[in-house]
């Protein structure tokens, strides 16, 4: 019951947010606020749920397709980019955090700190310029700088962009926890018995670090979902944001359905990552 009311609250909040643009108008340079227009959009959407009208949107001048006809492929593309980036970010963060916790080299922290404050669009610009420079210098096509079509998507650079900031966030968090674990008495006892570092890492460190990782999943995913807007736009990726934030006039139905899709995307991504972390627990923590 609690979950139902939470989802209902999210639905109502999305409707209210989507109605705001309809309440604000600029007529001859004068701003006007018309709450009745927003309320009308609100009622029309709820009323159109029964006959399916709320799930149609205007495309071009003569098309009125169903939202579900197009959303499937857009949703799949966004989900795959996010999930693959999440898995790589988690894997990298566990390895680097363990290494950083045992290292006294300050330049490592400086590099991590630099990339942590680098804005997404600057990182994307550097990656695209780097790929172009390598191609012009060596003739080697290391990565596509943008997606030219669904059949020719940019893969490497978008994934690198999506995983960089979440990975850095997890490295900073997990390195502190890893350091605390490595100074525990049972770890020192294992080292004194001559147990190699890999065995200690897989059987003792990961077991005690994974709970902190699970606690930070929502923060990591919030970062990635925010980055998704910029990544899909600048790399021309045909994902969820392509359909929702198009060049046509504002459409209440499309905005509501798009925001609800982001909620579903978030939930599916969260439980998929939880499944991946659970797999790590089964393989390493209880292996």
Automatic annotation (TrEMBL):
Q: In this protein, which residues make up the domain named ABC transmembrane type-1? A: 75-273
Q: What residues form the membrane-spanning segments?
A: 74-99, 111-135, 155-171, 217-235, 255-273
State the compartments where it is located. Cell membrane
Q: Which InterPro entries match?
A: MetI-like, MetI-like_sf
Concerning Pfam families, the annotation shows: BPD_transp_1 (PF00528)
* CDD domains associated with the record: TM_PBP2
| Name assigned to this protein | Peptide/nickel transport system permease protein
Species this protein is from: Lentibacillus halodurans
